[in-house]
Amino acid sequence: MDQTLSTQQKPEIPWRMIGLLTLGTVAWLVAYNIIQPLANWIAYSLLAQPQGSHLGDSLAFFFYDVPKIILLLGGMIFLISLLRTFFSAEQTRAWLGGKREGVGNVLAAMLGIVTPFCSCSAVPLFIGFVESGIPLGVTFSFLIAAPTINEVAVVMLFGLFGWKVAGLYIASGLIIAIIAGVVIGRLKMERYVEDFVWQMQKQGEGIIEKLTLRERIERSWDSVKEIVGKVWLYVVVGIAVGAGIHGYVPDAALAGIMGKQAWWSVPAAVLVGIPLYSNAAGVIPIVSALMEKGASLGTVLAFMMSVVGLSLPETIILRRVLKPQLIAVFIGVIGMAIIITGYLFNWIM
Amino acid sequence: MLNVKILGSGCANCIRLERNVRALAAKHNLELEIEKVTEYAEIMKWPILSTPGLVVDGRLVSAGKIPNDKQLLEWLSQA
Questions:
Q1: What is the CA radius of gyration of chain B?
Q2: What is the CATH number of the domain that holds B56?
Q3: I want to staple B54 with a disulfide (CB 3.0 to 4.6 A). Which of A84, A128, A298, B62 is the partner?
Q4: How far apart, in Å, are the Cα atoms of A290 and each of A259, A311, B6, B49?
């Protein structure tokens, strides 16, 4: 059967989808508004812990934060996934083709946020970009922005710290990706790309598909199920640890080791973060609690970015196409950029 | 026999795609020759930027996602 026949049916208005979406939105709003009173009721009435006690406060914090973050993740990932159905790696490559360095780096970093990306596809993406003539530095700007500005990280920062910190995180991820890409481009590292990459035949355009609204919604719902299904346990454990810190660790206990005054805290946070490949979901509740006890924002953001952006698995995958020298430069440049951003935040906040 | 290639270096989605294809083939008695392509130099002969890729009868039909069963069946039963 011809494929165009089956997917290009009459554009029907998907009333059922619209109904489901409306229902979902209402249910989401109701749930989001009752979790605070519900959490207080569970902690202080049902479990009969006095307000202001360590255990009572930790419990209230836990029962509020877990559903709040899960709801935020579900809702926001749906919206982000919907947005992402309008982008694809193939489309991004077409947009980046023929762009000079500079403009290309900025565009690549921004497209890195909205283009669907999985670190397991880093290699085909790298080869496909480079062989179609996109400069190495521009390709790196994309490859750095895509995992660093991760949707789960953004949603959790928004939920636990507010929109300002989430915005700062996105902005610094962009800046790091742009700067690191420009630096790698200037260093003329082309000869440290594995030779077979340059010997590949130039590919065709690839598949750029047209989707119906229904398919976009179905796909977004699938990614909500997949992502929330994958991270919910990390959220629960992370928030439990965070709640423990919240209730039991004295205020400002960490100011000495993770505060602004400790100059070495930023590089130390980055070093600790590189091998710690956890997903953002588990780390953020913990750093949020640490911050409350005196750790500074720059240190905490540096830690987060090094955990999600400089992940060991992605680096190992990239080793297939990059020689060790370029891998070292990749880690070094991003690490430096993160450290500088960390200091910058400690300094301005 | 229809030749089906699954392009991917062993990521979770590549494994899921292969499982889905095999399950469909068994369910609908399709005679398929299923091949896994895991070397990047080989994978990149097709114009794909994200894995898993699905090649049916020498033609790339999907990349970077797991198509639903209905769509898969359409491709796989074209022979």
A1: 11
A2: 3.40.30.10
A3: B62
A4: 10, 22, 45, 39
CA separation for the pair B51, A335 (Å, rounded): 28
Q: Is B54 helix (H, G, I), strand (E, B) or coil?
A: strand
Rounded to whole angstroms, the Cα distance separating A137 from A130 reads: 10
List Cβ neighbours of A50 (8 Å cut-off, separation of 6 or more): A44, A56
- Which CA distances in Å does A228 have to A21, A60, A64, A83, A146? 18, 22, 17, 18, 19
Q: How far apart are CA A65 and CA A270, in angstroms?
A: 27
Identify whether the C-beta of residue A62 lies closer than 8 Å to the C-beta of residue A100. Answer: no
**A contact set with B (CB within 8 A):** 1, 3, 6, 88-90, 93, 116-118, 120-121, 123-125, 127-129, 196, 200-201, 203-207, 320-321
Residue A10 has pLDDT above 60, yes or no: no
Q: Tell which phi-psi region holds residue B5, choosing left (phi > 0), alpha (psi between -120 and 50) or beta.
A: beta
SS3 content of chain B, % helix, strand, coil (to 5): 35, 25, 40
Which residue in chain B has the smallest CA separation from A118?
B50
Q: Per-residue pLDDT tens for A52-90?
A: 777 888 888 888 888 988 898 899 889 999 998 898 888
Total domains in the fold of chain B: 1
Question: Containing domain of residue B52, as a range?
Answer: 2-76
Instruction: Output the pTM of the full model.
Output: 0.81
CA distance B8 to chain A (A): 9
Cα–Cα distance, B1 to B57 (Å, whole number) = 9
Q: ipTM for the complex?
A: 0.81
Tell me if A338 sits within 8 A of A310, measured CB to CB. yes
**Taking CB atoms and an 8 Å limit, are B74 and A3 in contact across chains?**
yes
Measured over the CA atoms of residue A106, residue A91, residue A215 and residue A9, the dihedral's sign is positive
| B40 at A interface, C-beta within 8 A | yes
Residue B60's DSSP bridge partners are B55
Residue A193 DSSP label: B
